[in-house]
C-alpha cells in the first residue's frame, strides 16, 4: 500500500512510497483510503521534527460501509477514556498534556 512518509533526504521531506500492509487485530479494520488531508500542525511536525518514516495524517474520506458494519455488530468499539462538556476543553487538554488520559475523548456541545 502507499503512504505519505517523512524522508529527510527528500527536498520536500514528504514522499509517497510503498509501505507494508497493515495487519489489524480481531477488533480492528483496515480501510482503503482514496483521499486524505494533512492539517497545519501535521505539516509543521512533518517539515521540522518528525523522524524519518513517520506517516503523518489522521483524516481520510472513503466509503466506510465495512467499518460501520463492524461498529453496528459491536465488534469494533472505540476506547472512550472520558466524556466531558466542550466548555471543559481547557481542563481536558491539560490532562492530556500530563498524560492522565489515554484514549478518545468525547466532548459534548450542549
Question: Which key features would you list for this structure?
Answer:
110 residues; alpha+beta; two-stranded antiparallel ribbon; 25% helix; flat
Secondary structure blueprint with pairings:
Layout: E1 2-6, E2 14-18, E3 35-37, H1 40-48, E4 59-61, H2 65-73, E5 80-85, H3 89-97, E6 104-108
Parallel strand pairs: 5-6
Antiparallel strand pairs: 1-2, 3-4
Explain what the structure shows.
The chain has 3 helices and 6 strands; from the N terminus they run E-E-E-H-E-H-E-H-E. With 110 residues, the protein is of the alpha+beta class. The chain has 2 domains: 2-76, no CATH class; 78-110, no CATH class. A two-stranded antiparallel sheet has the order 1-2. The chain has a two-stranded antiparallel ribbon with strand order 3-4. It starts with a strand and ends with a strand.
Amino acid at each position: 500500500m502507499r503512504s505519505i512518509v517523512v524522508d529527510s533526504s527528500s527536498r520536500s521531506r514528504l514522499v509517497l512510497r510503498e509501505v507494508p500492509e497493515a495487519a489489524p487485530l480481531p477488533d480492528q479494520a483496515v480501510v482503503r483510503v482514496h483521499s486524505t488531508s494533512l492539517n497545519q500542525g501535521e505539516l509543521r511536525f512533518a517539515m521540522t521534527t518528525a523522524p524519518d518514516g513517520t506517516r503523518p495524517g489522521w483524516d481520510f474520506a472513503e466509503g466506510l460501509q465495512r467499518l460501520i458494519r463492524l461498529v453496528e455488530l459491536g465488534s469494533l468499539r472505540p476506547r472512550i477514556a472520558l466524556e466531558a462538556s466542550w466548555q471543559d476543553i481547557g481542563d481536558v487538554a491539560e490532562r492530556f498534556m500530563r498524560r492522565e488520559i489515554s484514549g478518545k475523548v468525547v466532548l459534548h456541545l450542549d
